[in-house]
TrEMBL record:
Catalytic center residues: R202
UniProt keywords, alphabetically: Isomerase, Metal-binding, Zinc
CDD domains linked to this entry: cupin_PMI_type_I_N_bac (cd07010), cupin_RmlC-like (cd02208)
Cleavable signal peptide: none
Class of this enzyme: isomerase
Spans through the membrane: none
Gene3D superfamilies, per database record: Jelly Rolls (2.60.120.10)
Domain Phosphomannose isomerase type I catalytic, first and last residues per copy: 15-111
Name of the protein described by the UniProt record: Putative mannose-6-phosphate isomerase GmuF
Taxonomic source organism: Engelhardtia mirabilis
Record note on cofactor: Binds 1 zinc ion per subunit.
Pfam families named in the record: PMI_typeI_cat
Length: 338
């Protein structure tokens, strides 16, 4: 069996969202979208029972992410841990909100355990790619909000009055712990990293109607009430503050929790990094470059440019980014921390 010591590129999964999706990922990231469809999300890395990222090119062409976790877990994950059911621990996506997303909440670990069944915990973080002049997000309850006032407002427009509103702009990031009520506002495009979960409890959907049924879209008020945490203070978006990192690159820490970390890398000259025995995910948001790795002394060169996502297995160890041209190679770096 071949060792897993090469960067991995995966087939992009397009998720049509006719209610709120758009086509701005073409403009913001240069992504080719399926014609005539309103794409709300593209899943860049996913290991779920119903959808699984497929490798494109290289030694492992055609293999799924789930297969690689099962067959090459030590090489791929290193000291990072899979989910309890043996899957890749993170899900990475781009998101385009042409219209407001629903007001919603995801359970944290305790909430998912209490709900049981198929409920899964989901903490996430957003890196904002664009937002327009008036773009923003609702995230967290306003200070002083209490259960006695919030729960009766669930299911109606009244819930919005209890939410903190944050204007956002390109280059900012926001951590969204499980249990936080939130909604992404119209005009925002972002990169999201999250726990490997697909549990969303919809609280309010702006009185929209499901086009297929002609009925209001379903809401999950009881589950949302169980999942909402009142001990979390609202967190404002954070900006990029770059610090020296390695020769040729500087880094801006953006978000970190017990599940994952998110940082920005700006590469202006050849920069050598190390996986430190855990997989690394690199998402290019501008510029172009080459990722150089070694496999048994043989140099491998992998192109990376705006809109690309590469998964670098833990076993790759030392690797090097080389920017092309005069423009910096701007990356978002993601990794598991659990």
């Amino acid at each position: 069996m071949a060792n897993l010591r090469e960067p991995l590129r995966f087939r992009r999964e397009y998720v049509e969202k006719s209610v709120w999706g758009g086509r701005s990922l073409e403009r913001v990231l240069g992504i080719d979208l399926p014609a005539g469809k309103r794409i709300g999300e593209t899943w860049e890395l996913v290991d779920r029972a119903d959808v699984n990222s497929v490798v494109v090119g290289g030694t492992f062409d055609g293999r799924t992410l789930g297969q690689l976790v099962r067959d090459h877990g030590a090489d791929l994950l290193g000291r990072s841990k899979p989910t309890p059911d043996g899957r890749f621990p993170l899900l990475v996506k781009f998101l385009d909100a042409a219209e407001n997303l629903s007001v919603q909440v995801h359970p944290d670990d305790a909430g998912a355990l209490a709900q049981g069944g198929t409920s899964e915990a989901k903490t996430e973080a957003w890196y904002f790619l664009d937002a327009g002049p008036e773009g923003g997000v609702w995230c967290g309850l306003k200070p002083g909000s209490e259960r006695a006032a919030v729960e009766p407002a669930m299911g109606s427009a009244a819930i919005v009055e209890h939410l903190a509103w944050w204007p956002v702009k390109r280059g900012q990031a926001l951590m969204v712990p499980g249990g936080t009520i939130h909604a992404i506002g119209a005009g925002v495009q972002l990169l999201e990293v999250q726990q490997n979960s697909d549990t969303t409890w919809r609280i309010y959907d702006w009185d929209r109607v499901d086009e297929a049924t002609g009925q209001p879209r379903s809401q999950h008020v009881a589950q949302a009430a169980q999942s909402t945490r009142y001990d979390l203070s609202p967190r404002p978006p954070v900006g990029e503050v770059f610090l020296p990192h390695v020769t040729g690159a500087e880094m801006a820490p953006l978000a970190r929790c017990r599940y994952f970390g998110m940082s920005r890398l700006r590469v202006t000259a050849p920069a050598e990094l190390d996986t430190a025995d855990q997989f690394q995910i690199y998402v290019a948001i501008s510029g172009a470059g080459v990722l150089v790795t070694l496999d048994e002394g043989r140099e491998q060169r992998t192109d990376i440019g705006r809109g690309d996502t590469l998964l670098v297995p833990a076993a790759c160890g030392v690797h090097r980014f080389e920017p092309l041209g005069d423009e910096a190679l701007d990356l978002v770096q993601l990794q598991a921390t659990g």
